[in-house]
Write a structure and sequence with these properties.
It is a single chain. By secondary structure, this protein is an alpha+beta fold. The chain has a single domain, classed as 2-Layer Sandwich (Alpha-Beta Plaits). The chain has a 4-stranded antiparallel sheet with strand order 2-3-1-4. A hairpin with a 7-residue loop joins β2 and β3. α1 runs antiparallel to α3. It starts with a strand and ends in a 7-residue tail after the last strand. The relative contact order is 0.32.
Length: about 100
């Protein structure tokens, strides 16, 4: 098994964490029918009120790249840009297996 995984961190303007969560959950919903997107988790830390984390697992890197060109994804990116103050790719990972990954 060789999947493409990303773990990212978005820092947003003060008070905009819930807005970012909503945008990212809408992104997750828009990927529900994409078989190549196997996991898309949106998480927050109670200790970081201006941060949102995303963990994604894709069938391959190309599938992830293709998802960024979708109209729905582009629309959500435009909605998120004004509130994002920073982005950090915590890691690009090679998923080896585990629960929830076929």
């Amino acid at each position: 098994m060789s999947k493409f995984s990303l773990f990212g961190k978005f820092t947003v303007q003060a008070g905009e964490q819930n807005t970012m969560v909503e945008i990212l959950l809408e992104a997750a919903e828009s990927m529900a029918d994409l078989e190549e997107c196997e996991i898309y988790l949106v998480s927050i830390s109670e200790n970081e009120p201006d941060t949102v984390y995303v963990y994604e697992v894709w069938s391959n890197k190309e599938a992830h790249q293709a998802s960024l060109t979708l109209e729905a994804t582009q629309k959500l990116i435009q909605c998120a840009k004004p509130i994002i103050t920073g982005m950090e790719r915590i890691g690009t990972l090679k998923t080896m297996g585990g629960k929830g990954v076929s």
